[in-house]
């Protein structure tokens, strides 16, 4: 595996840990406050990193507004993870999230949505993709 595949695996591990800890905190202090706390802490961390690295602020008026949508989506993702994990557990929350990610990312790649480079689903990948989706469906339904 190359470095970026290893980083993607690490991302998945961190995501599962995050879903667990987010769910526990949201049960203790509530969905809205826990979501706020996570984002404030994330903001403080990235501000510190940016200050240490001496990153300059970009000219925001030159950036298309749609590119700021992930900030809103991240709030929704954490909120929905907190809500779901407390009701259906971490495995099912992560599994259903992975299912959604695979379906949408495949459509984005295959059709070149949002202006990304087209990366068609090759015949060689259809079997492995089908096995992953089948496994996720079993996790979701059983």
How far apart the termini lie comes to 31 Å
- Total strands: the figure is 0
State the helix count: 5
Helical residue percent? over 70%
Counted up, domains total 2
Radius of gyration: 18 Å
Low-confidence stretches: none
Keywords: Membrane, Transmembrane, Transmembrane helix
InterPro entries: YdcZ
Organism: Clostridium botulinum
Pfam family, one: DMT_YdcZ
Provide a compact summary of the structure.
The chain is 78% helix and 0% strand. It has helices spanning 3-29, 31-53, 69-88, 90-111, 123-141. The model has no long low-confidence stretch (mean pLDDT 90).
List the helices and strands and how they pair.
Blueprint lengths: L2 H27 L1 H23 L15 H20 L1 H22 L11 H19 L1
Helix pairs in contact: 1-2, 1-3, 1-4, 2-3, 3-4, 4-5
């Amino acid at each position: 595996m190359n470095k970026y595949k290893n980083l993607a695996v690490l991302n998945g591990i961190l995501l599962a840990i995050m879903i667990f800890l987010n769910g526990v905190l949201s049960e203790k202090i509530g969905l809205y406050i826990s979501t706020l706390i996570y984002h404030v802490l994330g903001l403080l961390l990235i501000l510190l990193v940016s200050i240490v690295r001496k990153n300059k602020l970009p000219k925001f008026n030159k950036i298309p507004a749609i590119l700021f949508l992930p900030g809103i989506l991240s709030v929704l993702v954490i909120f929905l993870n907190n809500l779901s994990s407390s009701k259906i557990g971490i495995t099912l929350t992560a599994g259903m999230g992975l299912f959604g990610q695979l379906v949408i990312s495949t459509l984005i790649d295959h059709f070149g949505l949002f202006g990304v480079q087209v990366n068609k689903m090759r015949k060689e990948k259809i079997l492995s993709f089908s096995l992953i989706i089948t496994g996720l469906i079993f996790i979701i339904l059983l």
